[in-house]
Structures are given as structure tokens and as C-alpha cells.
Design a protein that fits this description.
The structure is a homodimer. Chain A folds into 2 domains: about 10-220, 3-Layer(aba) Sandwich (Glutaconate Coenzyme A-transferase); about 235-495, 3-Layer(aba) Sandwich (Glutaconate Coenzyme A-transferase). In chain A, helix 4 (about 70-80) packs across helix 5, helix 9 packs parallel to helix 10 and helix 16 (about 445-455) packs antiparallel against helix 17. The longest helix of chain A has 19 residues, at about 235-250. The first copy, chain A, is of the alpha/beta class. Helix content of chain A is about 30%, strand content about 20%. In chain A, helix 3 (about 45-60) links the parallel strand 1 (about 30-35) and strand 2. Chains A and B meet through strand 4, helix 14, strand 20, helix 15 and helix 18 of A and strand 4, helix 14, strand 20, helix 15 and helix 18 of B. Chains A, B: One of its GO terms (biological process) is acetate metabolic process. Chains A, B: Keywords: Hydrolase. Chains A, B: Belongs to the acetyl-CoA hydrolase/transferase family. Chains A, B: This is Acetyl-CoA hydrolase.
Chain lengths: ~500, ~500
């Protein structure tokens, strides 16, 4: 307990230190629980585990609001006891996903920049009842120093009647000072977000709270349950190469500064591979304004290529996390964490001129993107921040392998089975086959470029055939479709196990 | 000619006054022509008519970039001679629409806030070659005083090598001072748009140009070809009543200030009816931050209900235009025109907390919206600014009649045939039947509320049946769909002339 007490700097506050079980006991059925955490980084662990134990016995449900996905001690534990009525705004957990797709958990899939303000506005079904926030420390003034993510924590703390702080001793105290906490006023009093460079500091290094507002303090030493990244395969390498070549030409054409513009990169192995690939690019003095800091960013920092990275969470692989902790005294000079409302803000994305890079589950020939649903019905993860960045970036790029399931699925289809990003939002598509630059093109022009440059040869003739027949059938209409056939590729896959014609 | 000369205040510049034919002769085949105009307001007339005559004889095409739709002297004349290769970013002209849907004109349908920056970035296929801008006057310094719209004029003038100014003597000089022209710097040098209240003035009352940059000045006296609005019918009245009741409850629940927040309203008869309906509402001291100032706004000003309206164009009915000109000395104190890049900016929409109100062609049970395509293939008008506001508003509302074509079309369908706004973007749906408040709901929850509150009774059982069977067929998946049936309502309409089952 000595370590805990060192981290609770206000002596009077130490009387609020309780066990996880004691803290979890304050939660009532049906409450809205707002927690820290964005990807498996900085989420509370001890109290959720204790809450799950309680739910197993008492059988009730709560609503869980987070920054984004969180680790197994929160999503996993509450899924196992079926303790969640409604989950928002994002998830990546197998057990949660199964419940969502069995109608046993309601899931509201939101743009990640919308969540904090919608919770403050009271638009999500009441306000946050209990905030549970992981912290490195509590200051003398009772303010909360976050850990490896910031997410929606500050807004949840601001709105909640009950605040539980988990002091996580596995999180190094050197994280203090890496956060820039800024909660905008709500309309009609909101002011400009005064960020004009990626490293501008506009807020406080802690979440404002005050000693009176803290209900309980709970010690915890469970580390972030980060996951390994997939090895970088040839397809990911090819996409990275295509991107570099494309950006080199943008610079040559005068459409991009030599050091590019701030990079945003989605979460996951392909996104990480693309960022890592920039180590071997000619670009220097790069900057990042993104959601999640992954291993690739450390590669860029170590290579001397990256001047500064702003995000809302640090979520490397297990090896990457060690590397981050070991190099913390250097990395902390080049990394800043912001609330996701600011990291993902349309205002800053458009002002800074972000290069938005995200991955698609599928895209269609006219340039729409499905980011969320498998075969139009089953939720995979959620839209996350892709919409925040795609709509507002300087240049919006979506990556996808041209095929999936060993070629039985074409990632490029006649019509998406679900739509998260529309034809109005996307500039460039990249698959391992090549680049489709669709800026300024009409739907039929886009279709030809996407089929020619991005589709897999196994599916190119089928896509061309659909486009040609649809064009003829509609008298060359603006967006040719044969509605009875538009979703038939998905239906065929579900019937036969392949989108290919037998 | 005396009148024209009075409006060209720099004596030396008067030597650049030429005929429309002379000015049109400078345009070369394949050029990108960027014009003023946003809806049939403030677009150039004389030079486009002369250009159309030239194209009739010489047979060539140009690309036409505008603010949004424009009047018949521009879109109509250039459609008639098939003189447009590519049109962007929006249109509402019958002849243009026919060419687009016959593959004879390429059309790029863009978010209206994106156009100016994409044109400056060089993302639309080169830069603007010729800017043709309607003006009230040219100042002593050679700057351009716009007329009834601002649109993308300032950016087009900034980028173009050739600038043609049409001095329109039908536009009263009292319009001078109503504009607030601000062109943001491009990344990485962009700064916050410093608007924090709807009436904040941040720029100049003219488009910066300078005498050297003006190539030709052409006199014109053709008035804006504005169109009558449809009479306000019972369905529109019902929607307006539903909205007022909904907003009253938002105030009561503490989710909205008493004088609401700045209103944005789409273009057209339903939007106008909704705004007019507010005259008989209890709301006072209203403000507007929108694209187009229509008759309804004058009703609100005259009723003493509207403190200030910011837009990018003034496009009343023919009677409304007379009313506006006659009352100009008063209206000009309460109306300001901004570039559409600012009027529609995500930054200001989110900061000011706009109530975004737009109309849908169709919506589906899960809360996606089609704003652009008839039966998924034919372009109607375009997305316009609906996406700019819907994504970033404080509260996002879409209006639609529950049925169309005398009941043979249900505006609420199992799956949209085209997607412009997704489930992630919309808070509330209003039809003449009622209000579906879908904030914070999961897809299946949304479906039930939309079917119950908004669908027409003729289609409610069919929609419920689809939802029930899809839920069963997918094992209660997140977004239940039967893909082979999802678009069958549209296919049935095209085959039988009705979405109803025989």
C-alpha cells in the first residue's frame, strides 16, 4: 500500500482508498458507467473485475460507455457475466461481439469524436452516473493524472455524480506531463480549439476533478492487456510502397509539402505496417495527429523521422509496450495524449490538413466503404474514428487487401453490404494491387479506376461485366446498378462459401 | 452604360468593359470555369449565354464549377448546347440532370464545404482557369462586391488566371456591406475560423482581387431567375408542428436553450415550410447559420422572431425577391453572406451547435439516408451541404414525407438504394406521421421507433414483417437484413409501378 499512498498526494484523500469490491458495490443496476480506456490502454481493471463478480451473483445489467475498445478485464469480464445492457461507442472483443450479434447486448456505434459531447448533452440516455478512471496519480489538488489513454475520461468525470479512481501502479509515473486535457464548453458558449500545430498544448496535464468529487480510490497493479501485432506480410508491404510512391508524386505535383502533413493512421496490423514502412521512405520531419500510437510510431521516432505524435492512446504490442516504458524519458518529449473529442475533432483535422489513412472491410466500385459489418448484418468492431478523419482530412485514403478468405471474398464488390463512408468522403484507395486516385471523378470514372487499379484479377472481369451491364441496363445513368444483383455477391458467398461463380 | 460606369469605381478599369461575346471568346475548350452562384442567386448570366452561343457554333466542352445549383442562363444554356464535360459540385437543372443520367455529362457530387479547398489544393483536375463572377460593383482598389450569393467566388478568383466580372445592374447597390469574405489559408498554415457567434464579422465586405487581375468587365441586367415555392401543404404543416413540439420538450429537458441554437435549414418547399412554421412557435430571439436564405427567414424577421441570419445565398421566390429588395435597408442589418466554405464549415457547425434540418429522398429502418439518387441509380440533385451540417450539428434532423408518388413509394424502406448519410450521423427523423428520436439507440431499437412513429400505415406491416423475418434469419444479428430482399422494394416499384405487394 505504500506505493499507492505515494501516488495519492493529498493526504486526506487517502481515507477514500477502498477495495475494488467496496467500490463496485456502489454501482446500481441500469446505471450508465463511463470509463477511461481507448483500445486496451488505460482502462480500469480492478473495479470492473469486482463488478463482474458481483453481477455473477446478483444478476443485473449496466450500460458501458468507454473511449473505444478496452481490455479483457473490462469488456471481457462484463461480457462473460452478460452484465452489459448497452455498449458504446466501439469494441473489438470476441465475447462482446457475439452478444451484440445474438441480440443479447445493444450496441451504439458512434463517431468517436461525438461521444463526449453527446454524453454531456444528455443525448445517450441520461448522463454518466459513475465514472471509473485509471490514473497514475492524484495530485495534491485532487486532480487525476491519466495513464496510457485519455479517451472520454475528462468528460465522464465532469458529468458523473460518482467518481472512482483506479490508481494503477503498473503504469509509470513518468507518464505524468504527457497529457493535454481540454474539455470544450458546450454551445452556445464553445470557443475555437486553439491548436494550430500538432504539438500545441492547450489544456492541463491532469483531469480536473477536486478532492470532494472523488468517491473512492482503488489500488490496482494489473498491466494493460495489449496484444501482439500480426507480422508485416507482403501485401501490407506492397500497400506501404504504393502509398510512398503516391505521396512522392503529390509532393512533385506541388499538392503536398515535402514533410507531408500530419498523419492519421487507423488501428491494427495493416495500419501499423504502413506507418512502419515510412521508416524507409524519403520523408523527414514527419508529424502525427491520430488516435492510437502503435509500434510503427516508435520505429519512426527511433529512425529520427518523426518530430511529434499526438494521439489519445498508446497501444503498442507487448514488446512495444516494454520498449515504450524503457524509452519513456525520450518518447515523452515527442508524444502527447489528448481527449478523443480533440484528437478526432473535425475542426483540427481540417485545419491541420491531416492525411487520413484507414482500413475498409469492403469497398464498392463507386467508392463507398463498409468499415463495420460482415456481409451487411454482423457487427465486426465499429466505425471508430475513421469517419472523423475521412470526412475532414486533407487527403483521405482507405486501405484494403483486394481479397479475403483465401480469395473467396472480393473486398471490392458491386455494392457495399453496409455503408459507413460514402462516395463524397474518399480521395484514394490502396490495395496490394495498386492505387485508385478518385479525386474529382464521377461514379463511373471512379468505378473504372478502382476496377483497373485495385481489384484482384480473379474478380476484375466480374466487376467489369457488372459495370458494363448495369451501365447498359440503366441507360448510362449516374450510378449504374442492377438492384436485383447488386448484393448478389454477398448472398452467393453465404450460400456457397465463395463470391466466385461456379 | 452610365449606370455600369458608376459601379466600376476605378476609372482606369473602365477600359476593360467589353461585350459578353468578347469576354466569352477568351475561353478555350477543356478549361475549368469557376463561377459565382449558389442556387439561382448571384450567378453570371451574360457571359454564359454568349459562351453557349459560341459553343453551338464551334462545338466544344468546358468543365463547370460553381457554388451549387445556378439559374437557367448558366446551367440551362450550357446544357442545351451540351457544352459541359464535367459539372460540379451540385445542380438542380432538368436538362443537366438528363445529361448526367444519360452518361453525356460527368458529374462530381461533393460536400459543398469541400469544394473551395479542393479547388485550391488542385484535387479536382487542375486549377480554375477562368473565374466568372457576378458583382454589384468593383471598388476603387479593384476588389469585387458580390451580389445575392458568395459561394466559392473568392477562392475561384484567387486561383484563376483569368477573371471576368459581370456587373449586374439589376442587383441593388445596397447589397454592399452584407458580405463577409474570408478565405482560409491552406494547411499547414491554416488558423481557426474565428466565428463564435452567428453575426461575427471576420473578413472583408468584398472579394480581394485588385485591378490587374481583372481581365474583362461585362455589363448585365438580367435578374436572378428565382423560382416560386410550392404552397405549404398539410404534410409540411404537420412536420413543422412535430418539430416545434419536439424542440419544446428538448428545452424542458434542459437539452436546449430557450432561444434554441442556430438553425440550418435545407433548400426547398418543405424546408421553407418548417422555417415559416416557427413564426407561430413560442421561440424568440432565434438565429440562423445556414446556406440559403429563403422566404421563411423573412417571415421570421418580420415577425420579430429572428435576430440574425448568416448564409451563403439569398434565394427567395419571385415574390420574396421583391419583398427582399423593397425591405433591403432593414433586412441588410440582419443578414450576412459568407463563403460556403465558412457557412458550411464543420468547425463552425460544431462550435455554434447548429440544429441541422435537411430533407431525405428515402431513409431506411436502420436510420441511413439517401439524399441524392432515385431508385439507387439516377441522380436527382446532389448531397449539397446536408453532410456538412448533419455530421457536425448539435442536433441533426431529417425530414421526409412518409410516402411519395401517391403512396406507390414508401420513403421508409428496408435498405436505402443509395447512401449519403449513415446511421452514425442522424439524431431525429420527422415525417408527417411523427418523430423518431433515435439518439443513442442501437440499429434494431432505431428500426422499431422509425417504423412505429414515422412510417405510413400502408407500409408499417410490411416493414415490421421485414424486420421480424430478418431478425430471425440472422439470429438477431446487429443489423438484420435479408440481402436477397433488402432492395426488392425498389425492384418491385420499377417493375410494377408500386412498392406495394399486389
Amino acid at each position: 500500500m505504500i506505493d499507492i499512498k505515494d501516488r495519492v498526494r493529498n493526504a486526506a484523500l487517502r481515507s477514500k482508498i477502498v477495495s475494488a469490491e467496496e467500490a463496485a458495490a456502489i454501482i446500481k443496476p441500469g446505471m450508465n458507467i463511463g470509463t477511461s480506456g481507448f483500445t486496451p490502454a488505460g482502462y480500469p481493471k480492478a473495479v470492473p473485475l469486482a463488478l463482474a463478480e458481483r453481477i455473477k451473483k446478483e444478476k443485473f445489467k449496466v450500460n458501458l460507455w468507454t473511449g473505444a475498445s478496452v481490455g479483457k478485464e473490462l469488456d471481457g469480464a462484463l461480457a462473460e457475466c452478460e452484465g452489459i445492457q448497452k455498449r458504446l461507442p466501439y469494441q473489438t472483443n470476441d465475447a462482446i461481439r457475439k452478444l451484440i450479434n445474438a441480440g443479447k447486448m445493444q450496441y451504439t456505434d458512434l463517431h468517436l469524436s461525438h461521444v463526449a459531447q453527446m454524453s454531456r448533452y444528455g443525448f445517450l440516455g441520461g448522463k454518466v452516473d459513475v465514472a471509473i478512471v485509471e490514473a497514475c496519480a492524484i495530485t495534491e489538488e485532487g486532480h487525476i493524472v491519466p495513464t496510457t489513454s485519455l479517451g472520454n475520461s475528462a468528460s465522464f468525470v465532469q458529468s458523473a455524480d460518482i467518481v472512482i479512481v483506479e490508481i494503477n501502479t503498473s503504469q509509470p509515473l513518468e507518464l505524468e506531463g504527457m497529457h493535454d486535457v481540454y474539455v470544450p464548453l458546450d454551445p452556445p458558449n464553445r470557443l475555437p480549439v486553439p491548436i494550430v500545430k500538432v504539438d500545441d498544448r492547450i489544456g492541463t496535464p491532469y483531469i480536473e476533478c477536486g478532492p470532494d468529487k472523488i468517491t473512492y480510490i482503488v489500488p490496482c497493479d494489473i498491466p494493460d492487456y495489449v496484444r501482439p501485432l500480426a507480422a508485416i506480410d507482403d501485401d501490407a508491404k506492397a500497400m506501404s510502397q504504393h502509398l510512398i510512391k503516391f505521396l512522392e508524386n503529390e509532393i512533385k505535383q506541388g499538392r503536398m509539402p515535402k514533410n507531408l502533413l500530419p498523419l492519421q493512421s487507423g488501428v491494427g496490423s495493416v495500419a501499423n505496417a504502413v506507418i512502419s514502412g515510412l521508416v524507409d521512405s524519403p520523408f523527414e520531419n514527419l508529424t502525427v495527429f491520430t488516435e492510437v500510437i502503435q509500434d510503427g510510431m516508435f520505429d519512426l521516432i527511433d529512425a529520427g523521422k518523426l518530430d511529434f505524435a499526438s494521439g489519445t492512446s498508446i497501444t503498442p504490442s507487448p514488446d512495444g509496450l516494454k520498449r515504450f516504458y524503457n524509452g519513456l524519458s525520450d518518447y515523452r518529449k515527442k508524444i502527447m495524449l489528448r481527449p478523443q473529442e480533440i484528437a478526432n475533432s473535425p475542426e483540427t483535422a481540417r485545419r491541420l490538413g491531416i492525411i487520413a489513412m484507414n482500413t475498409a472491410i469492403e469497398l464498392d466500385i463507386y467508392g463507398h466503404v463498409n468499415s463495420t459489418h460482415i456481409m451487411g448484418t454482423k457487427m465486426m468492431n465499429g466505425i471508430g474514428g475513421s469517419g472523423d478523419f475521412a470526412r475532414n482530412g486533407y487527403l483521405t485514403i482507405f486501405f484494403s487487401n483486394s481479397i479475403a478468405k483465401n480469395g473467396d471474398i472480393s473486398s471490392i464488390v458491386p455494392m457495399c453490404s453496409h455503408f459507413d463512408h460514402t462516395e463524397h468522403d474518399i480521395d484514394v484507395f490502396v490495395t496490394e494491387r495498386g492505387v485508385a486516385d478518385v479525386r474529382g471523378l464521377s461514379p463511373k470514372e471512379r468505378a473504372q479506376v478502382i476496377i483497373d487499379n485495385c481489384a484482384h484479377p480473379d474478380y476484375q472481369p466480374m466487376l467489369q461485366d457488372y459495370l458494363d451491364r448495369a451501365t447498359k441496363a440503366t441507360g448510362n445513368a449516374h450510378t449504374p446498378h442492377i438492384l436485383s444483383e447488386a448484393l448478389s455477391w454477398h448472398a452467393r458467398f453465404m450460400e456457397t462459401g465463395s463470391m466466385k461463380l461456379k
